[in-house]
Specification:
- The chain is α+β, with helices and mostly antiparallel strands.
- Helices cover about 20% and strands about 30% of the residues.
- It contains four helices and six strands; from the N terminus they run βαβαβββαβα.
- Strands 2-5-4-3-1-6 form a six-stranded mixed β-sheet, with helices on both faces.
- The longest helix is centred in the C-terminal third of the chain and has 12 residues.
- The chain is globular, with a radius of gyration of 15 Å.
- The two termini are about 25 Å apart.
- The relative contact order is 0.23.
- It binds a DNA duplex through loops.
DNA sequence: GCCAACGTTGGC
DNA sequence: GCCAACGTTGGC
């Protein structure tokens, strides 16, 4: 399996909201960045594991783990003029934007905060801690994944 | 609320 | 194709 990290603002959709969703599963709609879309389209496979990250909040942190349960398919919110993520460039016959479904696996025993991640020498090259990174979907290496799980237990 | 980083848009 | 203007993200 491959590993990923997805950002969500907890005020909009938190790890608890994922847990409370039907089948503990949600459509990851609204991605409107080509690099993030390409990760979903070309990289994310069923069974891949995902760190669920809370962004733009009091304590930004990795808070849980989810897994991919449906591979990339058209993001229908791009077709809906009334949806905030509407994009007239995306047509049902030629969808510009895609989404995946992810399912709750577990919460971490404790949030592993951005502050801790930045301070961890073994994570200096992790995409999340690099300055100015605004990607909402990014890949995580095996080493990075294991390091975060060790930090969770520490 | 501020602002740095960065992607996108559109005039030329 | 360049680049200024603008919008968004997201930490602080």
């Amino acid at each position: 399996v491959a590993y990923w990290l997805m950002k969500s603002e907890p005020d909009v959709f938190s790890i608890d909201a994922l847990h409370a969703s039907p089948k503990r599963t949600t459509h990851w709609d609204g991605v409107r960045n080509y690099q993030a879309r390409n990760f979903m389209r070309d990289g994310m496979k069923n069974g891949d594991e995902v760190f669920f990250y809370h962004s733009n909040c009091e304590v930004p942190a990795i808070v849980g783990i989810a897994k991919v349960v449906r591979e990339a398919y058209p993001d229908h919110t791009a077709f809906d003029p009334d949806d905030p993520h509407f994009d007239p460039k995306s047509k049902p016959e030629a969808p510009a934007w895609l989404m995946v479904d992810i399912q709750f696996v577990r919460k971490l025993k404790r949030p592993v905060t951005l502050q801790e991640l930045k301070a961890q020498p073994r994570l200096q090259s992790m995409a999340l801690v690099r300055k100015g990174n605004r990607l909402s979907v990014m890949s995580v290496s095996d080493e990075e994944w294991q390091t975060v799980l060790e930090m969770e237990r520490a």
